[in-house]
Amino acid sequence: MSVVAEATTAYSERRDRARELGARLDFAEQQLRLYLAVVDAQERAFERAIAENPRPYELASFVVRDALPGIMEAAMAAGPGRLRDAILVRFHDGDLEGIVEAWLAGESESATDTFLARASTSPVLEALPDLAAAVFAVTGEALLTSPRKLLCSRCANEWVMSRMTCASCGETSGAKMPILSDVELFPHLRIDACEICRRYLITVDQRKDPRAVPVVDELAALPLDLVAAERGYTKIARNLMGF
To answer: Do 181 and 203 touch, CB atoms closer than 8 A?
Structure first.
């Protein structure tokens, strides 16, 4: 029961933050509206995963049966027209377990398949960290401070990493790791980039905004992503909306 209670708090915080940022940032309103629809379906998938505790070999079939329908319904209701059309095509094409398995294996997929697989599988892995550990190794997406922690883009697991180390290639020279920011728009967010591997991630500094919810605030950081792209950097792991 304590796990479900903690999840309820976490999902409530994500919803509240998405509403706040969506109301304040016009450029993020559309993706956060979609996220608000998706996060409700994710919470239900999380709770079902806790209740049923699928085995590793059951993961893809469990996701397709118990999580993916809710994600598809949410995206059809709140997503842009192109996403709705693409979901209909994917549904009729079938092999839904295949897109989940491909995402888990880190294979290249279309933007729609990646969105559906990630949105539906992540809450299951978040609910069952032992299952996540049995399926794949963690990968970094966003950063929290202090201390500096990486947040897994798949299962929301966290681990500490040295502040002066590139999360992609391990570079440790500060001169090779530029910081990009817009302190007026996002005083608590910044880009940590690397000149060696040309990769970057978004740092979320909760000391500067204790209300920040990294998985949500990172969705609203599109202007920073555009700055990074203009300078030739590639994100280590894209967020749920593909940025």
So the answer is: no
Instruction: Classify the phi-psi angles of 156: left when phi > 0, otherwise alpha if psi is within -120 to 50, otherwise beta.
Output: left
Radius of gyration of the chain (CA): 18
Sign of CA dihedral 31, 127, 154, 85: negative
Per-residue pLDDT of the chain (243 residues; tens, 9 = 90+): 455 556 668 999 999 999 999 999 999 999 999 999 999 999 999 999 999 999 999 999 999 999 999 999 999 999 999 999 999 998 888 889 999 999 998 888 899 999 999 999 999 999 998 887 776 544 444 555 457 888 888 888 888 888 788 999 999 888 899 999 999 999 999 999 999 999 999 999 988 999 999 999 999 999 999 999 999 999 999 999 999
Residue 103 near residue 96 (C-beta atoms within 8 A): no
Does an H or E element contain 105, and which?
Answer: none
For the whole model, what pTM was predicted? 0.85
Q: For tokens 């598809």, name the residue.
A: 72
CB 32 within 8 Å of CB 18: yes
